[in-house]
Amino acid sequence: DQQVKQNSPSLSVQEGRISILNCDYTNSMFDYFLWYKKYPAEGPTFLISISSIKDKNEDGRFTVFLNKSAKHLSLHIVPSQPGDSAVYFCAAVDRGSTLGRLYFGRGTQLTVWP
Amino acid sequence: DTGVSQNPRHKITKRGQNVTFRCDPISEHNRLYWYRQTLGQGPEFLTYFQNEAQLEKSRLLSDRFSAERPKGSFSTLEIQRTEQGDSAMYLCASSPGSTGEAFFGQGTRLTVV
C-alpha cells in the first residue's frame, strides 16, 4: 500500500528554469513532510521539510508547498542547476506515532541540462 | 565526521552465505532505522530501534534477517542464507527523536550471486 506517491518517474529541465516535483499522500495522520535528494550509490540526503501547520517553507533555491486539503506537496527549485540532477524522494511521517518511521515515494529522477 | 556511517559500502556474496552490516549512528541520536531500497523504489522500512530496544519490524524482514543494537549504540543487520532477492541497497538512518528528520548513511550495496 503506497501511502506516498510520486507519479512522475522523471523530469527534464533546462538550466536556469524552474523544476517542480510533485508528491501526493493518502494518510491524513501524516503531519511532517520531507524531501531527500539521492545520488547514485549514496544514501539519501535531507533537503527540506515542512510541517502540516504551514503551507510553505523556503530555503534558498528550494521551496516546498503543502496543500493539506488536496493531500499534495510540491518541491520547487529555482533556478535549476546541473548539480541538482539526482533522484528526489518525497517522504512523510506521523510524528504522533512513537515509531517515527518515514514513508517514501518511489522518487523522481531530475535531469537539468545546460 | 559526525554523520551516519555504514560498513561495508559494498558486499558481494554467494547465495546461501551469511552477511552482516554495521551502522554507526550520529552519537546523540536515540532512534535508529534500517531501510532497504531496490531499483525503481523508494526506501522501504525494515526495522526500528529506540536506544537498544527493537520496537518494530516490517513484514519484509523475514526470519532470515536479524538486527541488533547492543547498548543503544551501533547496530548490525545480519542476513542468513542469502538469496538473490536480497540484492539491494541497505540504508541506516538515525534520528534525535520526534522531530521528523532522519539522517541517512551512505548505504551498503549487497549483491547476491
Describe this structure in words.
The complex is a heterodimer of chains A (114) and B (113). By secondary structure, chain A is mainly β. In chain A, the strands form two sheets. In chain A, strands 2, 4, 5, 9, 10 and 11 form a six-stranded mixed β-sheet that branches. A five-stranded antiparallel β-sheet of chain A has the order 1-3-8-7-6, with no helix packed on it. Chain A is built from no helices and eleven strands. In chain A, strand 4 and strand 5 form a beta hairpin. In chain B, the strands form two sheets. In chain B, strands 2, 4, 5, 6, 9, 10 and 11 form a seven-stranded mixed β-sheet that branches. Chain B is mainly beta and 113 residues long. Chain B is built from no helices and eleven strands. In chain B, strand 5 and strand 6 form a beta hairpin. The mean pLDDT of chain B is 92. The chains are: A mainly beta (114), B mainly beta (113).
